[in-house]
Amino acid sequence: MSFVMDKNAMDSLIGLLRRKGYDVYGPIRKGPEYVFGSVGKASDLALEYVTTILSPRKYLYPPSEKLFRFNSETFAINPSDGTGKQAILAVHPCDLNAISYLDKVRTSGTFEDPKYKERRDNTLMIGMNCCKSGDQCFCASFGTGPDAKQGYDVLLTDLGDRYLVETASEAGKAVAADLKLKKATSADNQEKDKRIKAVRQSIKRGINTDGLPKQLDKNFNHEVWAKLKDDCYSCGACTTVCPTCYCFNVVDNLDFSLKDGERVRN
């Protein structure tokens, strides 16, 4: 179901989420770049962003997190505190798609990740369709943008003086109802299609995806990998920057007493 929301109602949306007990995060400026950070009011947001330094994955799968504390003598284990409710605002389609892949790995199958699932279940995802493309964007080649098809509770599209608001979950519908939003007209939906088409046509880069997995397999020992290997510092930053990476290591940190410690996932 789709609705319309005046742009000056963004503060009302943020206030509503905070009253519902959500910690609210969204894109904010960091020098010349953008990051996802804590948001208290609409003026904190930088909705003009194209990409951020790190994806919002960090709120679902932190770079480092304590799993539990332990005592090596009594073998007592104290689980870490649970996670609270959080709402992530203005997540672009590419990041929504990346999170959908993390969901497949961490919330389904034999090895479900309880820490990730708890955060995911407590997260309200508010997506935002792209209103412009960047020089490095190529999402249209993979069908992952500039408009979102999945992974959101609420989806916003900038229509100039208002947002088209689409809901895809009960939590999303509740937000629209609490804001008392008006239903969108066919003209609103047509305006969305027009704007998305313009963004798609502005994307300069593209990749031929036909047979791409086979091409990668055939070029496993390509010389480009040797060059990248020589340039690599082994800092591990790539695992933090990549929005779909789910690699991790687990370490035990002992206190100076050598009795108490904590287990951390990095």
Summarize the structure in words.
By secondary structure, the protein is α+β, with helices and mostly antiparallel strands. It has one domain. Helices cover 30% and strands 24% of the residues. The protein contains 8 helices and 12 strands. The protein has an 8-stranded mixed sheet with strand order 3-2-6-7-8-9-1-10, with helices on both faces. The longest helix is centred in the last third of the chain and has 17 residues, at 186-202. It is globular. The chain starts with a strand and ends with a strand.
Q: What portion of residues belong to β-strands?
A: 15-25%
Class from secondary-structure proportions: alpha+beta
Report the order of strands and helices.
EHEEEEEHHEEEHEHHHHEE
How helix-rich are the residues, as a percent range? Answer: 25-40%
- Give the integer mean of the pLDDT values: 94
Work out the number of β strands: 12
Count of structural domains:
1
Question: How large, in whole angstroms, is the Cα Rg?
Answer: 21 Å
Overall spatial form: globular
**Quick one: biggest sheet?**
8 strands, mixed
Strand order of the largest sheet: 3-2-6-7-8-9-1-10
The termini sit apart by 40 Å
Number of helices: 8
Short description:
The chain has 266 residues and is α+β, with helices and mostly antiparallel strands. Helix content is 30%, strand content 24%.
Layout of secondary structure:
Elements: E1 2-6, H1 10-19, E2 23-30, E3 33-38, E4 65-71, E5 77-79, E6 86-91, H2 93-106, H3 114-121, E7 123-128, E8 154-158, E9 162-167, H4 170-178, E10 182-183, H5 186-202, H6 212-218, H7 223-231, H8 237-241, E11 250-254, E12 260-265
Parallel strand pairs: 2-6, 6-7, 7-8
Antiparallel strand pairs: 1-9, 1-10, 2-3, 4-5, 4-12, 8-9, 11-12
